[in-house]
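Morning - succinic acid inputs below, output right after.
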Amino acid sequence: MNSLAVTLNRLQLRNPILVASGTFGYAREMQAYVDFGRIGAVVPKTITPEPRIGNNPPRTVETASGLLNSIGLDNDGLEQFVAKHLEYLLGLDTKVIANIAGKDTTEFQRMAARLGEFEGLAGLELNLSCPNVSHGVDFGSDPEKTHAVVKAVREVCDLPVIAKLTPNVTSVVPIAQAAADGGADAITLINTLKGIAIDWRRRKPRLGGVTGGLSGPAIKPVALRIVWEVATAVDVPIIGVGGIESIDDVMEFLVAGASAVQIGTANFYNPGLSSQLAEQLAEIMKTESCQSVSEFVGTLNTKTSSCP
Ligand code: SIN
């Protein structure tokens, strides 16, 4: 019997197809399009301890094969998340991984302790990597801070912990190692690449927040490279994300070393994609005669050169 189930340390999922935070609202918005029972997990929009109104508009701009966003973690805060969304989310026929961001270790710890009270949650994803708020990437660009925040969360919360890291550093490897050493069950690679879009005639940036985070197909080669680099250097399960829009993209991330993937920007133009990909992955398992998704993970053979 082949199985799509994957295990990322303490996190067990029916299949490796997740949807990425910030691209799926709080799931209600997507219920007409997605068969939740077919996907591995939902990761709702990042929540912060207090409500945030986010950055000035415009907040998104389309670029070649990509989307530049400067949302600024607009959300109603932790207690409104609990009051307005959690019951609905926990009633879905899929796992739910809450995504949290704080300004300091104490805030992360406080949020983790509160969310740890809800048994139905499958895990916590720590957003150590938002490029659009001050302090957003501070944790995820410093190995010591990454280690400290992951460890602090583990101390107060029994849920599986995933660290979502930024690509906007010289090397992600030492930061991924720090997250693993701090006790992360998995790491998510990658958050968006920092960029700017310019209206040269007006001599103005196109985004209210001036800079933004680039996502979508344009970033897939960068995401694959980082997943592969970390997978070959650090012993921690990876959730790959960045520009996935087809089953071939999913397979590329698995072969590069990801144990699971998140569908992000594609949810905006093809909201049913995640459940379709889970079905297509089941087909590939059959045609490739594979019993387990793990048979694909990290199988990239870089010794074979196509150069003459
Ligand atoms: C945002 O809300 O600005 C985007 C979230 C993120 O990139 O982590």
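Note: The chain has a mean pLDDT of 96.

O.
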